[in-house]
Design goal:
Bound molecules: adenosine-5'-diphosphate, magnesium ion
Largest sheet of chain B: 2 strands, antiparallel
CATH topology of chain B: ABC transporter involved in vitamin B12 uptake, BtuC
Helix content of chain B: over 70%
Structural class of chain A: alpha/beta
Number of strands of chain A: 10
Radius of gyration of chain A: 17 Å
CATH architecture of chain B: Orthogonal Bundle
Distance between the termini of chain B: 55 Å
CATH superfamily of the largest domain in chain A: P-loop containing nucleotide triphosphate hydrolases
Number of strands of chain B: 2
Number of helices of chain A: 10
Number of domains of chain A: 2
Number of domains of chain B: 1
CATH topology of the largest domain in chain A: Rossmann fold
Largest interface: A-B, 36 and 23 residues
CATH class of the largest domain in chain A: Alpha Beta
Number of helices of chain B: 11
Strand order of the largest sheet of chain A: 6-7-8-3-9-10
Strand order of the largest sheet of chain B: 1-2
Oligomer: heterodimer
Structural class of chain B: mainly alpha
């Protein structure tokens, strides 16, 4: 579904991605784990088009999207729930969701919104409130729900567990697992390596702009190097 | 009493023009956080282009429409040629670009048109209407009605249409707007075009009363900006009320004190209001939580 080859990206003159190769197959949950500053967010921003790639190739559903501007990638089925949530703080919860379906004007929009509310009942309760007033966990739910309103075939999730209490983290990971049942392929970026690898099919480990290891999630969890470096076991 | 009503009428008329300029500020500010100081030039262009096409023999309504369309094109060009290429620059730089653009537009208008004062006939004649001992020009009613019409239209646009919400979303978080599929460059272009059209509309309405020349833009931009600040920058309701209040303040000061003091008094009141309410009368502190 999603193939990345030799992807490089830079901020000004400083290159932070030094040739990333990565693949996500239809129906998979794939995770990219790594320490703070490894370049995970930059990678996702390149995939969604909000950060330019300086070299390499991104192929999505058989077509190169390397040069497709960010606002056209969702139409092709690629959505992102960005780091830091990036919700529309001064619009209401419902308006945030409606804007998630900006590309659509059919009846399915209402249906999708009802589904989003079923998935996160607290959002329904607060539907008319300004999204900026939500708690961190609620904002994260809104960010995911808004991305799903765009009817993606592939969802890029950047640190959905960041800053959340353990109970909420478990709930968010559960939602991510459920996405598979809805036919959404997931690329999940996490610092919480253990939680992410537990729900993923495959994983990549990222270190200072390079992929240092990859494999089945179960194998990575069992690998002693990873257990020591990322899982604190 | 008659005098008071008279001052209210003239204040409302001037205030409606300020309100239209302030509404223009609001749209661009909402889409980009940029305060567009070329807004006053759009009013000037609306008046001047109508005058010259009308003098060339085009019927007045058609001349007005042409002026509004042409001015909207100037607004789009301003965005495409000056603002969009500077994307990513700090907002202050963008504001300075709009000041530069306003100087350029004024200079071009002086060359293309002339330095004279012009007018065209009022839409419904020049005979004043008598209302409870005071008089009001029919054209004043056009101006006030025009401001209300634009306000209602914008209010519906921002609260009821997806496109309007896309403009608000772009202002709130540009990257997130792109992620939901909004073409943020297009939103900017739309905002400049719409804002310029509203400015030109104000120019068309007010020229029969105040006359137009190439240099009326600066003062209007300042007054419209003051009105928008008074009401709360970014809020259409604030722009309408702020603009009208500013006009009324000026008219009252001119009527009861002296027209010499009207600018000073108006600005003192605005400063006082902003001192107590830094976000203006209707300004909302944006709720944010990290
Ligand atoms: N906007 C930016 N400007 C300059 N450098 C940045 C910017 N964002 C991230 N970086 C740098 O790029 C590297 C990778 O960052 P990031 O992609 O955010 O990593 P991660 O998401 O894995 O924590 C870091 O060294 C970081 O300091
Ligand atoms: Mg990150």
């Amino acid at each position: 579904m999603l193939t990345v080859e030799g992807l490089r990206s830079r901020y000004g003159r400083i290159e932070v991605l030094h040739g990333i190769d990565l693949q996500v197959n239809t129906g998979e949950i794939v995770t990219v784990v790594g320490a703070n500053g490894a370049g995970k967010t930059t990678l996702l921003r390149c995939l969604s088009g909000t950060q330019p790639a300086s070299d390499g190739r991104i192929t999505f559903r058989g077509e190169s999207i390397t040069a497709v501007p960010a606002h056209r990638r969702l139409k092709r089925g690629l959505a992102q729930s960005p780091e830091g949530r990036q919700i529309f703080t001064n619009l209401s919860v419902e308006e945030n969701l409606r804007l998630g379906a900006f590309l659509f004007k059919d009846e399915r929009v209402d249906q999708d919104m009802a589904e989003a509310f079923a998935m996160f009942p607290i959002l329904k309760e607060k539907r008319n409130l300004a999204a900026g007033g939500l708690s961190g966990g609620q904002q994260q739910m809104l960010a995911i729900a808004r991305a799903l309103m765009g009817r993606p075939s592939c969802l890029l999730l950047d640190e959905p567990s960041m800053g959340l209490a353990p109970l909420l983290v478990a709930q968010i990971f559960e939602v991510v697992t459920d996405l598979r049942g809805r036919g959404v392929t997931v690329l999940l970026v996490e610092q919480n390596a253990f939680g992410a690898l537990k729900i993923a099919d495959r994983g990549y480990v990222m270190e200072t702009g390079r992929i240092s290891m990859s494999g089945a999630a179960a194998e990575l969890i069992a690998d002693p190097r990873i257990r020591e470096a990322y899982l604190g076991l | 009493m008659d005098a008071l009503l008279q001052f209210i009428f003239s204040g409302m008329t001037v205030g409606a023009v300020y309100a239209l300029v302030a509404l223009g500020f609001t749209i661009i500010y909402n889409a980009s956080d940029v305060v567009n100081f070329a807004q006053g030039e759009f009013v000037m262009l609306g008046g001047m282009i109508t005058v010259f096409t009308y003098m060339a023999g085009v019927p007045l309504p058609l001349a007005a429409v042409l002026a509004i369309v042409a001015t909207a094109a100037v607004g789009v060009a301003l965005n495409k040629l000056a603002i969009e290429p500077a994307r990513g620059a700090p907002v202050v730089s963008l504001i300075i670009i709009t000041i530069g653009a306003s100087i350029l537009i004024r200079g071009a208008a002086q060359l293309i048109f002339d330095k004279q004062l012009h007018r065209f006939p009022a839409f419904s004649g020049d005979a004043p209407l008598r209302v409870m001992g005071a008089t009001i020009l029919p054209q004043s009613l056009w101006v006030i009605g025009g401001a209300i019409l634009v306000f209602v239209g914008l209010w519906l646009f921002f609260t009821r249409t997806l496109t309007g919400k896309a403009v608000l979303a772009t202002a709130n978080n540009r990257v997130a707007a792109q992620l939901v599929g909004i073409n943020t460059n297009w939103v900017m272009t739309l905002s400049f075009g719409l804002s310029a059209a509203i400015g030109a509309f104000a120019g068309v309405l007010v020229t029969p009363i105040t006359l137009v020349s190439y240099d009326i833009g600066v003062g209007l931009a300042l007054k419209g900006f003051a009105g928008a600040m008074l009401g709360g920058m970014g809020n259409p309701k604030g722009a309408l009320v702020g603009g009208l209040l500013l006009g009324l303040l000026e008219a009252m000061t001119a009527g009861y004190l002296s027209s010499q003091y009207k600018d000073a008094v108006a600005f003192i009141v605005i400063l006082a209001v902003l001192f107590v309410m830094p976000h203006g009368l209707f300004g909302s502190k944006s709720v944010e939580r990290v």
